[in-house]
Amino acid sequence: MKVLVLGGAGFIGSHIVDALVERGHRVRVFDLPNVSRSNLYYCLHDIEMFEGDFGNIQDTTRALEGVDVLIHLICTTLPGPSNENPAYDVDSNVIGTLNLLNEALKHRVKKVVFASSGGTVYGIPKQLPIAEIHPTDPICSYGITKLMIEKYLYLYHRIHGLNCTVLRLANPYGERQRITGVQGAIAVFLGKVLYDQPISIWGDGTVARDYFYIADLVDAVCRIIEQDPPSLVYNIGSGTALSLNEMLEWIRRVTGKTPIVRYEPQRALDVPINCLDISRAERELGWMPKIGLQEGLERTWAWLEGQRVDLGRRR
C-alpha cells in the first residue's frame, strides 16, 4: 500500500514511518519545510518527502496523489495555548481537516487514520477506566477540535462511505520526543534531569495520566491499516494511570538522579486523572501494550544520554 503520513517528520510520525517502510509499504511524508528531517535519518532514502503547509489545499492535494492510506497526525495547537485563540484552533485544524477529507474523497483514498486525544476529548472522567462510550465533554479548545474532527469523520463515513478509524491516544513517550516545550511530560522531565534543571509541576503533583511507549502506538497503527477494524474509535494507551509525583519517583529510580521540582499553581485546563479502557483494542485488534514503564523509561533515558554525547562530540 502507498501510505501518506501527515506530520511524518515528528516524534510519533517518524516512528510510524520507520515501521511502515520496514513492513514493505510505500511511504510518503508530508511536513513543513522548516521541520528537521533528523528523525527520518534511517529511512530518508526509502520514502517520498513532500513539503508544504497543511492549511494550503494545493499542497495537501498534491500529496494525496496515488495514496491508498492517509494517516493524519498534524495538529497546529497544544492543549494549553489552544484556549487563547479558539478561532485559530478551529480554522487551522477543523477547516484544514475538512478540506483534506474532501480531497481524500476525490482521490479515492481507501482508509483514513486520525490521531485524536484520549487525554482531552473525555474531559473530567465520570468513571474509570474511560471506555470509548464515555461521555465526551472536553474542557479545552484542543479537545473540542479533536472531537469535532472525529464527528466529521463519522459524518463522512455515513454519507460518503469513507473508511476511517480514530485513535484516541493517551500520552505516548519515547525516543525522539522533544525535551523542550509544554507537551510530553516524560520527555520534558527526563530532559530537565539530564541537564540538572528544575521541573515545574502544575498543582501538587497528584494529577494522573495514562502513559505508554511509542513502539506500542506504532503497533496499533500498523494493525489498523493492515486490518479491517469493526469500530470507528479505539482508545490506545496503557490502561493504567500514574501521578506526576509517581512518575518523578520512577525517573529517580531509572536515572539514579533526584529531580529538582518546583510546584506551581494548578491550571484550570488539567483534568485530575485520565486512564483509558483499552479492552476494545485488545478484543478487536489483538493489540495490547508490550513495553512496561520501566523498560520504556530506560530506553528513552539511554537515547537521551546518547544524544547528549553526540552533541558534545559535534562541538
Quick structural overview:
By secondary structure, this protein is α/β, with parallel strands linked by helices. It has helices at residues 11-22, 57-63, 79-82, 86-106, 141-160, 185-194, 214-226, 244-255, 279-285, 293-314; strands spanning 2-6, 26-31, 48-51, 69-72, 111-117, 164-169, 171-173, 199-202, 208-209, 211-213, 233-236, 242-243, 261-264.
Key structural traits:
seven-stranded parallel β-sheet; disordered C terminus; two-stranded parallel sheet; UDP-galactose 4-epimerase, domain 1; 315 residues; alpha/beta; 2 domains; Rossmann fold
Walkthrough of the structure:
The longest helix has 22 residues, at 293-314. The protein has 2 domains: 2-172 and 212-236, 3-Layer(aba) Sandwich (Rossmann fold); 174-209 and 240-274 and 291-314, UDP-galactose 4-epimerase, domain 1. Strands 3-2-1-4-5-6-11 form a 7-stranded parallel β-sheet, sandwiched between helices. A two-stranded parallel sheet has the order 7-10. The chain has a two-stranded parallel ribbon with strand order 8-13. The chain has helices at 11-22, 57-63, 79-82, 86-106, 141-160, 185-194, 214-226, 244-255, 279-285, 293-314, and strands at 2-6, 26-31, 48-51, 69-72, 111-117, 164-169, 171-173, 199-202, 208-209, 211-213, 233-236, 242-243, 261-264. Residues 311-315 have low confidence and may be disordered. The chain contains 10 helices and 13 strands. Strand 5, helix 5 and strand 6 (164-169) form a beta-alpha-beta unit.
